Amino acid sequence: MKTISVQTGGKLYIAGEYAILTPGQTAIIKNIPIYMTAQVREARTIHLFSDMFDAGADMTPNSDYSLIQQTIKTLAACLGKSLEALPAFDLRITGKMERDGKKFGIGSSGSVTVLTLKALSAFYDLNLSANTIFKLASYTLLKMGDNGSMGDIACITYEDLVAFTSFDRQKVASWIATESIQEVLAKDWGYRIDILKPALACDFLVGWTRQPSISKDMICLVKSAITPDFLKDTQNQVLICQEALQTGDKDVIKTSLQKVSDLLLGLSPAIYNDTLKTLKAAEEGLDVIAKSSGSGGGDCGIALSFNQTDTKTLIKRWEDAGIVLLDLEELA
């Protein structure tokens, strides 16, 4: 019996969050090696299971499984097949991106969408490119009314440190409503995904606040505060940071990320809750730059450390404040 197993990881923003919601803006996003796994095997009928929920499902409408079901429908439409014409499978997803019932905030919905597409691409021997998976996952989320930038999808699909320039999601959504999926996929959506290779070695750390935040709710809360000046200033600093990463200019990386952090703090006080303020303040006196990541209000913050002794000091300061070290890896 044919059985396929694939994985996808998570993501966190280094710079450009909130601004990336506006078409043409750029963000720097890092893949996080905390994984979900999908196992697919032949079956008589389509059956779905995720360890996020108490029970499995089929393709009957189910609120728990609506994202997975819509992803399968998107792929079937792309292949020009009805659900009944798809060779049936059993899809089992495991690996909660949470601990003690509290989510990490590293992109679980994006991971599930990409994971389902990767698994079925392998199961059906489709060999879908990363770019096609990105478009299919974004198509699925737009069809469901998602209000995110799709930057998480870009990072999770390419499984790398990326610079993502966002596209006009309203325009693409209008195409989805009026044109075939094949026509929509064939169009140039106007995004850009560049894989970044940093030219200096530093430690990348993720601190988890253990305070879950709902991204879509934070976006609704903060979006109205976004101004042309915020967009202009953020884009400028993101591009400066991108170039500095690629040329290995530590001081410019630290300065640009500090300015990005200040811009977020000025955008809304809700972004830096008390624990994220503590996470940021722990950089004091160290060769480290720390900031919130993503929508803020909880979940995770990130830090870049340019000294191994300072890395250990930062981790200790975080632990003393109840902040959990979720990931530590060399960024190079």
TrEMBL record:
E.C. number(s) listed in UniProt: 2.7.4.2
Keyword Nucleotide-binding: yes
Segments forming domain GHMP kinase N-terminal: 67-158
EC supergroup of this enzyme: transferase
Pathway per the UniProt entry: Isoprenoid biosynthesis; isopentenyl diphosphate biosynthesis via mevalonate pathway; isopentenyl diphosphate from (R)-mevalonate: step 2/3
Keywords on record: ATP-binding, Kinase, Nucleotide-binding, Transferase
Protein name stated in the entry: phosphomevalonate kinase
Sample GO molecular function, one term: phosphomevalonate kinase activity
Pfam families in the cross-refs: GHMP_kinases_N
